[in-house]
């Protein structure tokens, strides 16, 4: 379970401040409160909060004014606006102004706790400070990844060699770093090399280093990657791509725990923990005599299979939230919503390139986002997913679907006299989703 957030409750009514204080404290959060926006800004200047839960309607400065003042001050806390029924216009404005979400007074408090848990999970993900698959383990909801986490916990504190298996883009190097960071060698270096990135002769020099004059162009001594990893972890990516000659040398290194630089016969002791990775089947490579079985025994004391993204769909929301937040910050985009069409694509596309492909696609979608919303830009979507036009109407299927959706939502709103709760129930979507649609389609309210 994630640790609680530091939350500032802002409401001019003491009764609501007390109710929210009890609700949030019982949910494991640290809670402070303020009776006005001015009081809140004073506290925000002096203290760091993860979340501000602010009433919309307050004297002097309302919740949206507080939100804008926070943005101007550079306060990084997320904001959830608390509204009353009928405050559709203001709720839409709050989302456009950068609020994470909103909560309607009098509705199920579980909805508020659910939104806060989204923020909590995102905070934990961002705090990991890793590069690609940051939410790889601790925040995963996937049973398969939970099993991976269990194995990692067991082997991290040992010096056993580990072979990470999985498709390209699943995060093998990130997992290798996770093992290193939780090992007894965490204060030592983490050195990585991709065996596919070098031709055989250059790879050997990279791995073992060389002395001056060892070959044409060797104008001075160079330390190899094995020596660079002294006292730490050496990550050998795409290890099953090693040539037979280098396989023999690697086997000797692992047996003797020493290396020789090219151009030297002096043995240098090394103290490393080896983690290897591959996207191939070790069994098939050995059967085809492309990889030595005795070397496999050495590098594969523990094998960890990382599932592809399509087999851990439970984590999609987590990854989407993380990458949207990450690239919104990178490109200074206040993205607060994802259109239904973009969401449907992200939830159904199989992502053959796994998390790396998801990251690349979301980065482009954020770059092309407009007015705080991600749309399904056809220039970003892989061609094998692109939806053809009907061939009957000059409009694309996307345009037709959007117009139909807009018309239907408008009719439902009119039918229920703009009661957001009733309309959302009829449409089978959340109230937040409906507010986003009202904003997206520019509907009158």
UniProtKB/TrEMBL annotation:
<dbReference type="GO" id="GO:0005524">
    <property type="term" value="F:ATP binding"/>
</dbReference>
<dbReference type="GO" id="GO:0000160">
    <property type="term" value="P:phosphorelay signal transduction system"/>
</dbReference>
<feature type="domain" description="Response regulatory">
    <location>
        <begin position="6"/>
        <end position="120"/>
    </location>
</feature>
<keyword id="KW-0597">Phosphoprotein</keyword>
<dbReference type="Pfam" id="PF00158">
    <property type="entry name" value="Sigma54_activat"/>
</dbReference>
<keyword id="KW-0902">Two-component regulatory system</keyword>
<dbReference type="GO" id="GO:0006355">
    <property type="term" value="P:regulation of DNA-templated transcription"/>
</dbReference>
<dbReference type="InterPro" id="IPR025944">
    <property type="entry name" value="Sigma_54_int_dom_CS"/>
</dbReference>
<dbReference type="GO" id="GO:0043565">
    <property type="term" value="F:sequence-specific DNA binding"/>
</dbReference>
<keyword id="KW-0804">Transcription</keyword>
<dbReference type="InterPro" id="IPR025662">
    <property type="entry name" value="Sigma_54_int_dom_ATP-bd_1"/>
</dbReference>
<dbReference type="Pfam" id="PF00072">
    <property type="entry name" value="Response_reg"/>
</dbReference>
<dbReference type="Pfam" id="PF25601">
    <property type="entry name" value="AAA_lid_14"/>
</dbReference>
<dbReference type="InterPro" id="IPR002197">
    <property type="entry name" value="HTH_Fis"/>
</dbReference>
<keyword id="KW-0067">ATP-binding</keyword>
<protein>
    <submittedName>
        <fullName>DNA-binding NtrC family response regulator</fullName>
    </submittedName>
</protein>
<dbReference type="InterPro" id="IPR011006">
    <property type="entry name" value="CheY-like_superfamily"/>
</dbReference>
<feature type="modified residue" description="4-aspartylphosphate">
    <location>
        <position position="55"/>
    </location>
</feature>
<keyword id="KW-0547">Nucleotide-binding</keyword>
<dbReference type="InterPro" id="IPR027417">
    <property type="entry name" value="P-loop_NTPase"/>
</dbReference>
<dbReference type="InterPro" id="IPR001789">
    <property type="entry name" value="Sig_transdc_resp-reg_receiver"/>
</dbReference>
<dbReference type="InterPro" id="IPR003593">
    <property type="entry name" value="AAA+_ATPase"/>
</dbReference>
<dbReference type="InterPro" id="IPR058031">
    <property type="entry name" value="AAA_lid_NorR"/>
</dbReference>
<dbReference type="Pfam" id="PF02954">
    <property type="entry name" value="HTH_8"/>
</dbReference>
<keyword id="KW-0238">DNA-binding</keyword>
<keyword id="KW-0805">Transcription regulation</keyword>
<feature type="domain" description="Sigma-54 factor interaction">
    <location>
        <begin position="138"/>
        <end position="367"/>
    </location>
</feature>
<dbReference type="InterPro" id="IPR002078">
    <property type="entry name" value="Sigma_54_int"/>
</dbReference>
<dbReference type="InterPro" id="IPR009057">
    <property type="entry name" value="Homeodomain-like_sf"/>
</dbReference>
<keyword id="KW-0010">Activator</keyword>
């Amino acid at each position: 379970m994630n640790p609680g957030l530091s939350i500032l409750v802002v409401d001019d009514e003491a009764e609501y401040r007390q109710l929210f204080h009890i609700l949030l404290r019982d949910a494991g959060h640290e809670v402070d409160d303020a009776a006005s926006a001015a009081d809140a800004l004073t506290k925000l200047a002096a203290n760091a909060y993860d979340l501000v839960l602010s009433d919309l309607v307050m004297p002097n400065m309302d919740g949206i004014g507080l939100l804008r003042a926070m943005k101007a001050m550079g306060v990084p806390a997320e904001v959830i606006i608390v509204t009353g029924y009928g405050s559709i216009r203001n709720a839409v404005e709050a989302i456009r102004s950068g609020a994470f979400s909103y909560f309607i007074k009098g509705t199920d408090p579980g909805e508020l706790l659910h939104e806060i848990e989204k923020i909590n999970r995102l905070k934990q993900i961002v705090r990991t400070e890793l590069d690609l698959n940051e939410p790889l383990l601790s925040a995963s909801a996937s049973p398969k990844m939970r099993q991976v986490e269990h194995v990692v916990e067991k082997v991290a504190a040992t010096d056993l060699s580990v072979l990470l298996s999985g498709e390209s883009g699943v995060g093998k190097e990130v997992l290798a770093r996770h093992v290193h960071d939780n090992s007894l060698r965490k204060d030592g270096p983490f050195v990585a090399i991709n065996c596919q990135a070098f031709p055989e002769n250059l790879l050997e020099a990279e791995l073992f280093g060389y002395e001056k004059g060892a070959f044409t162009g060797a104008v001075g001594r160079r330390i190899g990657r094995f020596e660079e990893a002294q006292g730490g972890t050496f990550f050998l990516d795409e290890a099953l791509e090693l040539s037979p000659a280098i396989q023999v040398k690697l086997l000797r290194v692992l047996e003797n725990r020493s290396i020789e630089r090219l151009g030297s016969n002096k043995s240098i002791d090394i103290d490393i923990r080896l983690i290897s990775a591959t996207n191939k089947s070790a069994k098939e490579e050995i059967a085809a005599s492309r990889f030595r079985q005795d070397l496999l025994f050495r590098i594969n004391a523990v094998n960890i299979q990382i599932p592809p993204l399509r087999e851990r769909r439970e984590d999609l929301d987590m990854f989407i939230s993380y990458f949207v937040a990450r690239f919104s910050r990178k490109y200074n985009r206040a993205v607060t919503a994802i259109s239904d069409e973009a969401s449907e694509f992200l939830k159904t596309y199989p992502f053959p390139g796994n998390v790396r492909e998801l990251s690349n696609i979301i980065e482009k979608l954020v770059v092309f986002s407009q007015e705080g919303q991600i749309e399904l830009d056809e220039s970003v979507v892989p061609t094998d997913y692109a939806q053809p036009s009907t061939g009957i109407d000059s409009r694309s299927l996307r345009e037709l679907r959007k117009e139909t959706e807009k018309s239907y939502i408008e009719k439902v709103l009119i039918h229920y006299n703009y009661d957001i709760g009733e309309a959302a129930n009829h449409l089978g979507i959340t109230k937040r989703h409906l507010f986003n649609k009202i904003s997206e389609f520019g509907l009158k309210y």
